[in-house]
Amino acid sequence: MSLLSSFWSEFLEGAHKNEGKIPVLYSILKHASPLELTDEKIIISCENQGAKIFLEQRKNEVEDELYRHTKKRVLVEFVLKPPKKKKIDSPLLSFEPSAEDLYSKSGLDHKYNFDNFAVSSTNQVAYAASSAVVNNPGTAYNPLFLYGGVGVGKTHLAQAVAKKILDNDKNKKVYFCPGDNFTNELIESIREKSTARFRRKYRHLGLLIVDDIQFIAGKEHIQEEFFHTFNSIVSAGGQIILTSDRHPSSIKNLEDRLRSRFLGGLIVDIQPPDFELRSAILLIKAKEKNINIDIEAAKIIAERTLDSRALEGVLLSIYAKIIGIKEKIDLDVVELFFTQKEDNKSKRLTPSDVIKAVCTYYNVKQSHL
């Protein structure tokens, strides 16, 4: 072990003793690694963009932890882990499907991955559990059941797991399926008398993700088919990930045997994103779209936009107002945007406003009405 690796191992061991005070920070640091260490500075490589933003927001806490370990102050710089260089085997021409082709065939959306998944205390357990499934699919947590409200990142995290597993093994049979799609496909297969093909598609998967599993509740034949699909995959060592808007115990009209299977895995509640998570999500969105935004401006947007799904819309609306005028979204631009938004809300249309507008248009006095 190199001196740098030895230093980092000792540092993590010390941080582990302090984990009770910094659980989320410690979890992220475990997956980071040092690139360079001098008397004045340490450069830390982060696993993905979300982790990098999270650690940058807690730079002072990391420096304090390092001080506890070294008894001297060092500056910390966070960088992204460099991508692995892929070996090119001969021949140069290959007929293997590209990663994007595999993702598409597996029902995955290109925009969801671990690199753009921001982590905070509201989703840290789900993130850690998902990482464990990537490392040990079919054995770590099976099934992994993620539940929470709209826009908390359930689908994002589930698809990120699928992509990582496919990256690790291109031959793995992976499929992402919304709950209503499973229902519709089964009904269609019955109508066309092709249930055998349906079962071959689903029962031999290495990873099945069903998004919004609550949609199969109350449908007797669908639940029967999913029960056998579940058993076939798990008994063959495959992994199942389920998402829902509620805990398995709260899904009405769900068969007891299915509920029992769901409760037998790891169930993780993902809470709505807090302020710091919304800030991180916004910064990631801005980076993806090459939008230059001041971090303080991002904080104001995150503070005033509680719905994580609305963050991107607000960002794009503000950006549209500065194109060709400013190079950066700053505090002044953001404050003006929200002021105008509030002004528009306060302007309520009254009956007298309508009468006045009609009279003006037709050149009629109100007294003549």
Automatic annotation (TrEMBL):
This is Chromosomal replication initiator protein DnaA. Keywords: ATP-binding, Cytoplasm, DNA replication, DNA-binding, Lipid-binding, Nucleotide-binding. The lineage of its organism: Bacteria, Candidatus Roizmaniibacteriota. InterPro entries: AAA+_ATPase, Chromosome_initiator_DnaA-like, DnaA_dom, P-loop_NTPase. The keyword Nucleotide-binding applies. One of its GO terms (cellular component) is plasma membrane. Belongs to the DnaA family. Plays an essential role in the initiation and regulation of chromosomal replication. ATP-DnaA binds to the origin of replication (oriC) to initiate formation of the DNA replication initiation complex once per cell cycle. Binds the DnaA box (a 9 base pair repeat at the origin) and separates the double-stranded (ds)DNA. Forms a right-handed helical filament on oriC DNA; dsDNA binds to the exterior of the filament while single-stranded (ss)DNA is stabiized in the filament's interior. Residues 140-274 form the AAA+ ATPase domain. Pfam families: Bac_DnaA (PF00308). The keyword Secreted does not apply. GO terms for molecular function: ATP binding; DNA replication origin binding; lipid binding. One of its GO terms (biological process) is DNA replication initiation.
